[in-house]
Design a protein that fits this description.
The chain is of the alpha/beta class. The chain contains 13 helices and eight strands. It starts with a strand and ends with a helix.
Length: about 350
Amino acid sequence: MKGVLLVNLGSPDSTQPKDVKKYLDEFLMDPRVIDVPRWARILLVRGIILNTRPKQSAAAYKRIWWEEGSPLIVISQRLQKKIQQRTTIPVALAMRYGSMTLQKGLQELADKGVTEVLVIPLYPQFAMATTETIEVAIEKLQKMYFPQMEITSVPAFYKKPDYIDVLSGSISETLKSFDYEHILFSYHGVPERHIRKSDITQSHCKINAACCATPSPAHQFCYRHQCLKTTSLVAEKLGLKEGTYSTSFQSRLGFDPWLLPYTDRTIERLGKAGIKKLVVVTPAFVSDCLETLEEIAMEGEEIFHEVGGKEFTTVPCLNDRDDWADVLTGWIDHWRIVDTKSAIA
């Protein structure tokens, strides 16, 4: 019997500092999130970050927390429910970090008699700290607890036409009611070393103006290329004029080089350059979360107004839109009916 496991990032159990600290410890101690030797990671995370960050992060979560709980969790559950209503096979939901563990998700499917699982990481672009860490954790759990289970994972879907159609459509809806001057496509940031580590050619990724535009097998796992490609495909779909849109990267941590340009500085630069009406899209996520709701929608707007910007709006993530649920269901049912390789390619 076949089944599906949707996987998202996760959230703390509450906005209390102790729960946020527990969540951050699991998240930041992941060697694919902070990829330094374990002793250095312990020193950095448990010796420094967890002594200062939890209270700050707890305050940020409080700003965006819903009455029902974590926005990310609630949205993901709504999406799961819609997909389950559209397909005949079991659909479970799990988070990479937090209480809704991957093991619980797989066990839920196993209890229903599922022996073949399609894992869908809810990230359009591949990255070590998102897609890869899910796949590695799933593989470990399979060997330890579910040896008879056959598991297949959906690869990065950043350029699948039906995804681009839905993403473009959601952006178009916002643009109809907002007379923008510039659209900023802001993606989650990652350290530059993650890009080089993911380069299967070990030579292509230079992180410059040319490498992401030059065809290469490295693009299969290049987060930067996939982000830039997402922007260009949407711009082409919407007929955006050159110069009216750009790409940036948010959420950096530490002192190592991260992908440029930074979102906060880009918003500041655009405001200082005279842009008065700005739209920000966050296509690295399909579900609104702390980054999109607080870092971009709140902090980003504050920065924009401080430097003279007048009107600022964000495009909601795809969340539990009906057309997005239809797209995911289409992928699931194709995998259910047809051969796996063609279904997830």
